[in-house]
Amino acid sequence: MFNYYRIFFISWLAIVLPIAALADTVCFDCHKKEAFSGKVVHQPLANGQCSACHNPHVAHFKGLLEQEGSALCFSCHAKEQVAFKQGMVHQPVRSGQCLVCHVAHASSREGLLKDPLSAACFGCHTKLPAKFQYTHTPYAQGQCYSCHLPHQSVFGQLLKDEPDKVCLSCHKSQDLQKGHLNYPGTLRDCLSCHNPHGSSRKGIVRDVLHAPFAQGCKECHDKGEIQGSTQSCLRCHEAVATGMFTRHSHLTGKGENKCVSCHSPHAGNEKNLLKGSQLQVCRGCHTDTIARYENKLYRHPKAKEGSCTNCHEVHGSNRIAMLRADGNAICTRCHETQGKFTHPVGEKVVDVRTGLMVTCITCHLPMGSDFKYELIYSGSKDLCIQCHKRY
Amino acid sequence: MKYVKNMLSQSALLAVSIFMVATTSMAAEPWAWKATLDGTGSGRVIDMPTALYIDAERQRYYVVDSGGNRLVSFSKEGNFLLAFTAEEKLQIPYDMIRDNADVIWVVERGRNSLTSINIKAKEILPHIIKDGQKALVPDRLDYKDGIIYVLDKQTGQIALLGSDLTVKNWISCAECPSGIVDFKLTNDGIWALDQLDKKVVQLGADGKLIRQFDIGQKVEFPVSLAIGPAGYVYVLDRHAADIDVFDAQGSFKYTFLTKGWQRGALYYPIEILFDPWGGLCVVEEGNGRVEVFGR
Question: What is the residue-averaged pLDDT of chain A?
Answer without folding.
Answer: 88
